[in-house]
Amino acid sequence: MVAIILFVCIFWPEAVASAEETNQAAPSPDKVLYLTFDDGPSDYTQEILDLLARYDAKATFFVIGRAAASQPELIEIIFAAGHGLGNHTYNHPSLPSVSRERMVDEVAKTAAVLGDRDGGCLRPPYGARNAAVVKNTEQLGYQLALWTIDPRDWARPGARVIANHVITHAHPDGVVVMHDGGGNRAQTVAALRIILPALAKQGYRFAAMCRDGVAPPLQKQAPPPMPPSSAPILTTSAPSANKGSANASATDDVAVEEAPPAPLGVVSFTSPKAGATVRGVVAVTAVATHPTFRKWQLDLILDGGSDTFLALGEAPADEPTELVRWDTALYPDGEHQLRLRVVYEGMNYDEILLPVTVANQ
Fold first, then answer.
1. How far apart are the first and last CA of the chain?
2. CA dist., res. 159 & res. 157, Å (int)
3. Mapping DSSP to helix (H, G, I), strand (E, B) and coil, where does residue 228 land?
4. Which terminus of the chain has fewer Cβ atoms in its 10 Å neighbourhood, N or C?
5. Could you give the residue ranges of the DSSP H alpha helices within 144-244?
6. Which residues are bridge partners to 244 per DSSP?
7. 121 has which bridge partners?
8. What backbone torsions phi and psi does residue 303 show, to the nearest 5 degrees?
9. pTM of the predicted model, to two decimals?
10. Over the stretch 216-238, which tens digit does the pLDDT of each residue have?
């Protein structure tokens, strides 16, 4: 009896803590979440793999070919652990802006690095795609793999902010995009320590897509993140009048400094006109500039509220410029909105919305 009491006193608290950490709610067959990581492999990839193993979670890594080529052992570790491997091009270009020959080369060089570990899924950098990219992807024998949940971890808003976004937006068959490469990903690793146990307690299981015949879910996709190379300058200044500000969600995970008020930019559509009915291929023309310009991004907000990416550019449009030839036939008929954002220093942005009606039928 004394031995039993001693065992309980010494080992029971540790056993309970271990059980609380690892014995989560029984995973539901209907609550599958697909975690995906872009732009690696990097020095953070192994930390992510260790966390995934701890919670018996599988994920999919969309690798940049040049990074994968320099770390073949890590690619083998990812695959041996049961995770999916996807193609994220060799040099991370925006595919709508390159020739078909360049796209084929980018995909083929990464495919050669992955070999038979290639899961047959292509994630275009920034999520950028147009009709030509979609067609080329199919001709190359790949499936496009985008996402539905984007915590924008690349902006480093704080581990808690990243985790809260994923947890509150999680849904069955959801696809989460995060990053294990492209910069400092310490916040992503820290966020994953919160995400995995929290969603496991809700009955989610974490599966790999682009592996063993599991294809990306067919559903509406979220808009892409801005390129990780656009290193944000986070501040603690109060949110500006601009609707979007990464500063507002910065936490003590990031060293911050006060910033002066941002100057105003110019964001305006010149074509099509507000309220226009459009069909077929439409030239979207606009002005998109700012004194500390970083990027512009054009999205379509579909009737019902979901977003889909149309185009992005890394040069300002100081005068009316054709941003994209928009093939409306790829989207459902209805009353939608074009949204143009100019992203500037600090990863703040100005934006404008333009209502349009798509009527192809």
1. 81
2. 7
3. coil
4. N
5. 159-169, 186-201
6. 349
7. 143
8. -55, 120
9. 0.61
10. 987 555 444 444 443 332 222 23
